[in-house]
Write a structure and sequence with these properties.
- By secondary structure, this protein is an alpha/beta fold.
- The chain has 2 domains: 14-158, serine acetyltransferase, domain 1 (Orthogonal Bundle); 177-279, Hexapeptide repeat proteins (UDP N-Acetylglucosamine Acyltransferase, domain 1, 3 Solenoid), CATH 2.160.10.
- 40% of the residues lie in helices and 13% in strands.
- The protein has 9 helices and 14 strands.
- It starts with 21 loop residues before the first helix and ends in a 9-residue tail after the last helix.
Length: 280
């Protein structure tokens, strides 16, 4: 596979060097997991099943996702076959997952390895399941997509309509309470924190949800409602309610949200600075 354009964190430290390809990330992930298996023997069987027995990043991802949502009427074997079919038909899903994992590692100071978010972060798991589910939606397998969406929401507390296109290098931090409506659009290098809503303003049909452009930071608890645009590189403050378009590079906050400043970072989603004081 060709090298993948990967998100570079502007604040990345030397110890957080970014892999330049899927294969390099996979080897890094395997090395990290092997070290954990050596230190913590109780986890060895789990780590073998999750990572070490697999031949590639995509294989490990398919197995991990399947086991997360498995239930008696939908066993892991069936789900893993579904995910593998999606990854084979659309290799861009794996490329996006690689970029998402790197985004998570470089933007979350609590992620001290690639192994931790790959194995344990439900924001990452929910996003990658959504990518598979969006493939189902595009294949017009709508009933299956509805089933998977329901399971994602039930298990991860992340509710993203399967119709929503999502760019690469997206970071969903924590994940709990996120709701993203059917006609939303999410660009590249976006960061979304817990309890963010991209919703409508009523029961109207048609194009009714927000369009979030590249590099946007949606801070914790932000509510963005209606067919509006959050411009490239904008920041939405925690707990804000946004009802109108947000200009590129603007920082908005409040209920209803108003411009309180302009971006001091070239890409707020990468800087992950939720404060407002430096922007005013």
């Amino acid at each position: 596979m060709n090298d993948i354009e990967l998100t570079q964190d502007i604040a990345a430290s030397p110890e957080r060097s970014v892999p330049s390809s899927e294969e390099e990330l996979w080897q890094t992930l395997r090395t990290e997991v092997s070290r954990v298996a050596t230190r913590e023997s109780v986890l060895r069987s789990f780590l073998e099943l999750a990572v070490l027995r697999h031949a590639s990043f995509g294989d490990a991802l398919a197995s991990l996702l399947a086991r997360k949502l498995a239930e008696p009427v939908m066993p892991a074997e069936l789900l893993e076959g579904l995910v593998r079919g999606a990854l084979k038909d659309d290799p861009a899903i794996v490329e996006a997952a690689v970029a998402d994992l790197i985004a998570t590692r470089t933007r979350d100071p609590a992620a001290e390895s690639y192994a931790t978010p790959f194995l344990y972060y439900k924001g990452f798991h929910a996003l990658e399941w959504h990518r598979v589910n969006h493939w189902l939606w595009r294949q017009r397998r709508r009933e299956m997509a509805d089933f998977i969406q329901s399971r994602i929401s039930e298990f991860f507390a992340v509710d993203i309509h399967p119709a929503v296109p999502v760019g690469r290098g997206v970071f969903i931090d924590h994940g709990t309470g996120i709701v993203i409506g059917e006609t939303s659009v999410i660009g590249n290098d976006v960061s979304i924190l817990q309890e963010v809503t991209l919703g409508g303003t009523g029961k109207e049909r048609g194009d009714r949800h927000p369009k979030v452009r590249d590099g946007v930071l949606l801070a914790a608890g932000a509510k963005v409602l209606g067919n509006i645009e959050i411009g490239k590189g904008a920041k939405v403050g925690a707990g804000s309610v946004v009802l109108k378009d947000v200009l590129p590079c603007a920082t908005v906050a409040g209920v209803p949200a108003k411009i309180v400043g302009w971006c001091s970072d070239s890409t707020p989603a990468l800087a992950m600075d939720q404060s407002l004081g430096s922007d005013i």
